[in-house]
Amino acid sequence: SQKIEQNSEALNIQEGKTATLTCNYTNYSPAYLQWYRQDPGRGPVFLLLIRENEKEKRKERLKVTFDTTLKQSLFHITASQPADSATYLCALAMNTGFQKLVFGTGTRLLVSP
Amino acid sequence: DAGVIQSPRHEVTEMGQEVTLRCKPISGHNSLFWYRQTMMRGLELLIYFNNNVPIDDSGMPEDRFSAKMPNASFSTLKIQPSEPRDSAVYFCASNRGARGSGNTIYFGEGSWLTVV
C-alpha cells in the first residue's frame, strides 16, 4: 500500500542546534516533494520544493535532501530558534496528476530556549 | 494581497443538519483544492478544480459531500446530512494550476467544524 511516514512523536531540541525531520514514502513515484510548516490553528504554509532530479535544496537556514533510491527526504533547520516550533508536513506530487499533493501526517518540532 | 479566504472559521452544528463551507481563492489562481485534516488521518485531499471544473473528486468520502465552483472566485463544500465523524478542519487552497511546474499550494486558515 502507499504510505508517507513522518515521525509522529514530537522532536524536542535546544535552541541553536540543527533539527532534522524525516519523510519516508513507499509505493509512490513522486515528481517532486514539498515541505510545509503549520502553526496551531493555521493553514499550512509552503517552505521548499525539491524535484526528483535534485539531491539538495537550500533556503536560508533550511535544507532539504531527496533520495529517490532510499525513498526519503530529510528536512534540516540549522541554528534553530524557538520561533521554528511548529508542525512540519511533507507532501508528494506524482508524475501523473501533478496537482494532487499527498501529505504526510507531520512532525511537531519544539525548540527550547 | 489577500490570501485564500474561508468562512465560517468555526461552526458547531447538530447531527443531521446541512453544513456549507465557503472559499474565495487567490485572484488569478486557476486551481482550487478542498482538504480535510484530522488527527487520525492527517491532511486528505477531497476534491480539486481546474478552471472551475472538478478534475478529481476521488477523495470525497461519500454522497453526503458535494462541492461546487460556480465561478473563478467562489467555491462551496456542502455536507448534508452532517454526522459527528465529519468533525474536522476543512481547508481550501489554491494555486496557478500550471501543469508540471510544481506550483506551491496556498492554504486558507481553515473552517473548524464540530458536529454534535
Please write out the topology.
The complex is a heterodimer of chains A (113) and B (116).
Chain A: E1 3-6, E2 11-14, E3 19-26, E4 30-38, E5 45-51, E6 56-59, E7 62-67, E8 72-77, E9 86-94, E10 101-103, E11 107-112
Chain B: E1 5-7, E2 10-13, E3 19-24, E4 31-38, E5 42-50, E6 53-56, E7 65-71, E8 74-79, E9 88-95, E10 106-107, E11 111-115
Parallel strand pairs in B: 2-11
Antiparallel strand pairs in B: 1-3, 3-8, 4-5, 4-9, 5-6, 7-8, 9-10, 9-11
Oligomer: heterodimer
Q: What would the principal axes of the Cα set say about the shape of chain A?
A: globular
Strand content of chain B: over 45%
Number of helices of chain A: 0
Low-confidence stretches of chain A: none
Terminal CA distance of chain B: 36 Å
Overall structural class of chain A, as computed from helix and strand content, comes to mainly beta
H/E series of chain A, N to C? EEEEEEEEEEE
Report the helical percentage of chain A. under 10%
Record field, number of beta strands of chain A: 11
Percent strand of chain A = over 45%
Tell me the major beta sheet of chain A. 6 strands, mixed
Calculate the mean pLDDT score of chain B and round it. Answer: 92
How would the global form of chain B be characterised? globular
How confident overall, as mean pLDDT of chain A?
92
